[in-house]
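Hi team,

Below is the intake form for Fructose-1,6-bisphosphatase class 1 from Algoriphagus aquimarinus. Please confirm the fields before the structure is written into the shared record.

FORM ID: S-0412
PROTEIN: Fructose-1,6-bisphosphatase class 1
ORGANISM: Algoriphagus aquimarinus
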Amino acid sequence: MKIIPYQPDQSGLAYSVGTTLDRFIKLKQSDFPFASGELSQLLRDIALAAKIVNRETTRAGLSNIGGAFGQVNVQGEEQQKLDVIANIRFMRALSKGGEVCAIVSEEEDAVIDLQNTSGKYVVAIDPLDGSSNIDVNISIGTIFSIYRRKTPTGSPIQLEDIMQAGTEQVAAGYVLYGSSTMLVYTTGCGVNGFTYEQSLGEFFLSHPNIQAPKNGEIYSVNEGTQREWEDGILAYIDQCKDRRYSARYIGSLVADFHRNLLKGGIYLYPATKKNPSGKLRLLYEANALALIAEQAGAMATDGTQRILEIQPTTLHQRTPLLIGSSEMVIEAESMISSLAKAPLL
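The structure came back. Fields below:
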């Protein structure tokens, strides 16, 4: 019997499809040795739910699951049918996986206690960001944060397990459902992006070690609310226009953030007279994207304070958000500081 060593194919007939998400997670498991495999499985559970939500979004126009559901969530926002479906899908995946003890969701009034006292992790999630764009076929997304519980396993969850600052995140990520579906995540050791290959049903590494440009020429903000901005934000946006920067605002947080992360730019959702505390949620929107931004060399602030250092006091706490290329965020924050006046009323 003849035995020969394996030689990688050199014919060029079969191109490499790359590294799957599952294999990448296994290779990187040493980055978090404390997890003993649970965090790896949790990331796989999220990826599985994302595949299912991707399927639902791509067939929404054909299966009568577009449009409003007829209820209002805790945020006072009208729920879309896909909001509800995405929430159910992620709840099922996270509850069946066995690694999670509690879930904080944008679509739920209270913390969801999974009654899994052996679970080591708490997940905060916006199951479907930008859902108002579903019916007009604009990119939407999922945002998630993962925290280790503070109390010992085997005991009931406590408030301290939930109300953790963003610096305590062990992982965070988002899924973008668009012209292609991408999952981008960090475990505190850089940021990597994976593109979904639908025919194979797998996420493949497509954007390794993402690094955000330090500067950019894109600003993303809803200028329809500019009459309610503080002076510093007004001055910064005027400066962007003077420099002939491009205004790009999709109205889907994940999509706007993703573009600026790759191309360089700044996303702003400032405080307004209507929403003096901002509108974006700290626990399951701002914290996740802030961790990703910082791991990619970008920045995230509320205008005066680093997002990741804000201590949450309520479940659905809101915050202003300035996030993106570091030099742009520093400049915007400097203008806010120099032109600061009394709080918006």
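SUMMARY LINE: The chain has a mean pLDDT of 89.

Thanks, M.
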